[in-house]
Request: fold
Amino acid sequence: MNIATKRWLPHTVATVCLLALLYPLAWLLATSLKPADEVVTSLDLWPSHLEWSNYTTALDGVSGISVTRLLGNTLLIAVGAVVGNVLSCSLAAYAFARLRFRMSKVMFAFMVATLMLPHHVVLIPQYIIFNRLGMVDTYWPLILPKFLATEAFFVFLIVQFMRGLPRELEESARIDGCGAFRTYWSITLPLTRPALITTAIFTFIWTWNDFFTQMIYLFAPEKFTITLALRSFVDQSSTSAYGPMFAMSVISVLPIVLFFFVFQRYLVQGMAASGLKG
Amino acid sequence: MSTVSTRAPARPTLTTDRKPPARRRRQVRERQWPAYVFLTPWMIGALVLTLVPMAVSLYLSFTDYNLFDPPHWVGLRNYTEMLTDDPRYWRSVGTTMLYVVVAVPLKLGLALAVATLLKNLNRGRAFYRSAFYAPSLLGASMSIALVWRALFNDGGTISDILNSVGVHAGGWVGNPDLAVYVVVLLTVWQFGAPMVIFLAGLQQISPDLYEAAALDGAGRRRQFVSITVPMLSPVVFFNLVLEIINSFQVFTPAFVISGGKGGPADSTMFYTLYLYERGFTASHMGYAAAMAWMVLIAIAAITLILFRTSRSWVFYADEEGR
Reply:
């Protein structure tokens, strides 16, 4: 193998892999713009003409609920979840990373253990609790748990990040008379920003993608998220409506794609950090 | 570079240790209450949304409960029924196990291969890393599951391509032998997340090790087996535990690809899908709770076995010379 081949071979392999990997995404975009008769018959990725009416059909939404409304509903849940997770997980993480208290070891071990707890085990009783509280078919079951730091993954991520921060600044703040809350809010939290941003982005994307919880708790079409609407759309339409169906699919993943382009550095680093620091 | 273990850094000795006991005790008390305030949301969540639900679901698993009438104690009946008298339960166990056993090694193998490839790239590594990661975020969405269903459906792109090379398998989605692999491939497609973790691990291995090995005459393959694999083993372990636990809980792709029914012929009736059907469609909440406890036991057992066996194959660099 000469030197030029050696240099270009990995690039070629990586590019070929990448193209294969991104094919389904290209297919999704292409199909969302295809006229109905080309969806099934043609293997060509590129449509003969761009069928924008697929998108106008999709924008009309499902059961009389417009896509704007559906996106607004989803955004409300996602933003609520983000605020809840960032606040509650950073509070708990600060206590685990920096404060001394009896039971800290036991509680930390419990928190780490819940990382491995299958969701199934708490699913049914949680449903019963929210049902008793009259919260089924509201957004509370989707948002409230995030304010109670139930996602141990993020608590753990922030703890790991905080442990890596130098203690000196916090200690001097304490000597200057700052209480624990002041130190947390004005010193530690700003320094933890990268981990908080990672938490916020992952929470947003995971909430946006979620289907199971939304399906269990939401029934009224006007409260539907975009994912639930997409599912009813699929149930209602046959294969002839492939174009509009995938137009709606594109609309529903668009926020994730945008988030990915804007924040990919944080996403990739956050994922890498979750497996390495400790 | 330990991963799941969470060794706390050595605590600096507090100056208060030398003070008289009475004063020290007061100081300790002063130091403790803010911690509990910080932990209040988490403690409420842990109690109300984790511990109490765990106890309740354990109780419910011994009852007959339909959400409307009070639970009715049936002892071990749910468990004996699922283990001895419910072929669909075993079908869902089998499907899930097949999925875990095939998808997890494929996904991690591909992740490691691509991470090794990218590590050797000097230019464009950051770009490739991000691009390969994209499917991991999108793949969990219903949209991509719908794409998968269309691609692997009868007359979809995959069956057309296979036809053109002379393999007439038809649509995978409607084929009871192949439908589960549609879900497998969708999971493997999302190898970007473990890949990013592997790549970060690879970049932490000191180049000195490779140089020394090369001087001693070790070839590429030997270097991979004797340096990369042991140095990376904690990361492999972390990824393995995480992926297995996640795989047990797969739902969205199975739901979408099977049209919510687990078909054809229950071949995509994954465990979570069956649990959902029993609990929320058929209103057998007690039975579903018992199923949930079986997953917990299975995951606990597998994690325990992995941790036990890890001692023989996971190598922690910072434990050297201890």
Q: What stands out?
A: The mean pLDDT of chain A is 89. Chain A touches chain B through 89 residues (CB under 8 Å). The first helix of chain A runs from residue 3 to 32. Residues 73 and 225 of chain A are 6 Å apart (CA to CA).
